[in-house]
Amino acid sequence: MASLINSELFKDQYSTKEMRAVFSGRAQIQSWLDCWVALAKAEAKNGVIPESAAEEIAQKAHAEDIDMDYVREGFKKTSHPLMPQIRAFTKLCSPETGGYIHWGATTQDITDTGMILQLRNAQDILEKQLEHLLNQVLDKAEKYKALPEAGRTHAQHAVPITLGYKFAIWADELGRDLERLQHDRKTYFAGNFGGAAGTLASLFDKGIAVRNDFCKNLGLAIPTITWHVSRDRLANFSSDIAIAASTIGKMANEIINLQRTEIEEVEEGFQMGKVGSSTMPQKRNPMICENIYANVRLVKNNANLGLEAMVQEHERDMSFWQTEWMYLSEMCLVFSAAIKMMSQVMDQMIVHEDNIKRNLNMTHGLIVSERVMLDLGRYIGRQNAHEVIYEDAQKAFNDGIDFLDVLLADERVTKDVDEATLREMLDPARYVGSCVQMVDDVVKKWRK
């Protein structure tokens, strides 16, 4: 086992089949071949190389025809990341055409642009996964938009919310994550072609035209200047991925907390055969969500390398851009797995409505003390009402008395608020604010 991403046991926890295909060795080589084809066509169009050479390069550019053993051995001998591939490709072509492969280019032109092609394919997969997950969460938001639940701030009961409101917050954030990725892709999916030090000197007066056509041929944005040592695009990409992953990490962490034995409002899903512990038979651990959060940690840590790689020396610094081959692919692989696992959680989630109701009434009315305070404040002022209800709430908590009983015994309250009004105000279901409307607004905004 070289990596958990390719482990026979754990590969589906740390990656997905679709994403592994994007970052396979063959896919990387094919991305380089695609770049050479795009370059040859651009150069033929601008009179730099013969049209016949460009046609043959396109015909022979198939990764499955490359001698991988020859390339691997070449890496060992040359210590160069691309030269063995150039030689292997040249062997597939006629001597005349082989001499035009990589014309005017430098290694980083091909490896950078090839990596961009792979990242574009990866983001296509991630966007589809996120769209599916977003719709799953929207479904949950709609289903539970009116189910009252204890809202919690600082890990303590605060005021009532609805379970659908919680899901809608997640959905809105997922929507923004997806929107951010879709918006920024036109910035960071740009071709990179500049030759030796980025000046295009090797192509004389044809350099800019060839660069532009090279990018157009690949469907990539055209940069205004060579970006060999400007890695902000990739830092932007890694940041967008890390932000989206953090949303899913927050969802997983919240489900873990809501599945605590003493809360048990939501469960990631359970069926006979799922095992929580090798020694405690009763355990129903949120292990899928824990796996998700482990992946999210990997994504976030790798994103830091995107910022590190922005500081480069002079006109080329291979020590940094070769780290991108590793950390960017790993980010996409483990994030794809995290999304897939979260979709599984959404499909299999168990909502324990009885426990939600139990927890909502756990404080015997204290969860709506704000409402009582504000109503009383209409008669004695907000600050005075806060002092009165603060004293009553703390007495109810410390003495284990129903909040209603304490309020009814306090003349400062009953002088202005009758018992019927108090009983109505202490119903948590009547104090969920605009939760339902906000859920509807989120669904309307993001439902495709």
TrEMBL record:
UniProt keyword terms in alphabetical order: Coiled coil, Lyase
Please provide one cellular component term from the Gene Ontology annotations of this protein.
Answer: cytosol
Entry coiled-coil feature ranges: 116-147
According to the entry, every stretch annotated as the Adenylosuccinate lyase C-terminal domain falls at 364-443
One Gene Ontology BP term is:
'de novo' AMP biosynthetic process
Which InterPro entries does this one have?
A: AdenyloSucc_lyase_C, Fumarate_lyase_CS, Fumarate_lyase_fam, Fumarate_lyase_N, L-Aspartase-like, Pur_lyase
Concerning SMART domains, the annotation shows: ADSL_C
One Pfam entry for this protein is ADSL_C
Q: What superkingdom heads the lineage?
A: Bacteria
An example molecular function term from Gene Ontology annotations: N6-(1,2-dicarboxyethyl)AMP AMP-lyase (fumarate-forming) activity
Could you tell me which NCBIfam families the record lists for this protein? purB
Read off the PANTHER family from this record: ADENYLOSUCCINATE LYASE
Q: What is this protein called?
A: Adenylosuccinate lyase
Q: Which organism is it from?
A: Lactobacillus amylovorus
Identify the taxonomic lineage of the organism of origin: Bacteria, Bacillati, Bacillota, Bacilli, Lactobacillales
